[in-house]
Amino acid sequence: MPATGAPPTSRQGTAHAGARLRALWQTRGLGAWLLWPLSLPYRALVALRRGLYAAGLLPSGHPGRPVIVVGNVVAGGAGKTPVTLALVRHLQSRGLRPGVISRGYGRSTHDCRAVAPDSPAQSVGDEPLLIARSSQVPVFVAPRRLDAARALLAAHPQTDVLVCDDGLQHLALARDLEICVFNDEGVGNGFLLPAGPLREPWPRAVDWVLSPQGAAPGLRPPLRAFALQRGLAPHAVRRNGSQVPLSALQGQPVHAVAAIARPGDFFGMLRAQGLALEQAEALPDHYDFDSWQRSTDGRYTLICTEKDAVKLWPRFPEALAVPLQLHIDPAFFAALDARLAALAPQPRVRVHGPP
User: Between these two residues, 221 and 234, which has the higher pLDDT value?
Assistant: First the structure.
């Protein structure tokens, strides 16, 4: 039965186009070489911008608490938000009081605001809302992350450390630690956008790398890489927080929906858990679900990612969300603890460049 609302061919076509582009980015084939000339002005702009920040001609500021930026150098999903959540939980386990800042990609607002667990996803972004609900730490969003950091610290001055979800290229925010996350595609063909997936030339200086292989292409000492493995939890979560074992869903018809950068990964992991996907519906990353309707009846269990659930639950409370679990090399957290202990504890306020 076809979906109603936005035409399925439109939204699913966008997702399929994104998948084709990611496939093109994996090799230096004809399509990539045809796009390569367009990557040269992009490379020049990236270098110019970084140079202006380095020279102090564009301003950067530090909010006065240790800042950890979790980001990537490739377009598309690398798992930054799950890593941010893992960092927050580790910091909490160490007795620290972290806060999270983000741009709030895909939101309809453009101001600086706090993210509450009951905030509308369209106002704050799906990923910041997921973080606020999952971690119960202060979360603020703003186009300029420094504004978000200052607003968060003004509202929660007891915050010990700030974690920035995404923002490796947001140089207006000075940072103490940079963590670059890769998925199993690595840097693809090594070309910059639009001929390849790179947002900036790689390798570039970062503190640590997290990747499935525990390494990254072109990584040079003293940069360190740690292994990161992803997998689904053995249970799904209802809107009320109760759990349903995935084993209990085996043998039932399932309608899986995913509006993430790599929906095929989610579908594949569900099948590996023994679920029968009668329909696997891939939608564009950060799809808002405002006009989305189920293309299956209530006999099909509706299942989605945690990121999609914050947008689906208001209209489809019966949906089940399957959490993503990360397994990060314990040596990474040991290195993180040592680095945070070495950072100067006194507040700092720095602004570089013209006011």
Answer: 234
